[in-house]
Amino acid sequence: MATSSCKGCREEYKVTEEQIQRILASSAFAPERCVPDEIYEQRLELCRSCPKLQDGTTCLVCGCIIPVVAKLKVRECALPGQSRWGAYHEEAV
């Protein structure tokens, strides 16, 4: 196995789907803080096509776990000068 200077890149530090689901179930992800499921899926799809996504979870630009941060209304894509998500704005009801 290749040695990496980034501890997040080593196998023992990789986040699991179970960990992601546990985080998303926490009170920090209350519905009023999260984007609608449709927007969440769009964000994930945009990230899947990004060359800065590593192992399907980690953004190499900001180090965030994408399946977690993509759920939050207050977050935006961190790609400098080329944000893939754009800002989320609630639609008036």
The fraction of residues assigned to DSSP E strands is under 5%
SS field, number of helical segments:
3
Structural class category: mainly alpha
Largest β sheet strand count, sense and barrel closure: 2 strands, antiparallel
The end-to-end distance, rounded to whole angstroms, is 53 Å
What is the average per-residue confidence, as pLDDT, rounded to a whole number? Answer: 85
What is the alpha-carbon Rg in Å? 14 Å
Strands of the biggest beta sheet: in what spatial order? 1-2
Order of helices and strands: HHEEH
Q: What does the overall shape look like?
A: globular
Walk me through the topology.
Layout: H1 17-24, H2 37-48, E1 53-54, E2 58-59, H3 66-69
Antiparallel strand pairs: 1-2
Protein name: DUF6171 family protein
Description:
About 25% of the residues lie in helices and about 5% in strands. The protein is mainly alpha-helical and about 90 residues long. The protein has a two-stranded antiparallel sheet. The chain is built from three helices and two strands. It has helices at about 15-25, 35-50, 65-70, and strands at about 55, 60. The chain is globular. Strand 1 and strand 2 form a beta hairpin.
Short description:
The chain has 93 residues and is mainly alpha-helical. It contains three helices and two strands.
Summarize this structure as a short list of keywords or feature phrases.
globular, DUF6171 family protein, 93 residues, 4% strand, mainly alpha, two-stranded antiparallel ribbon
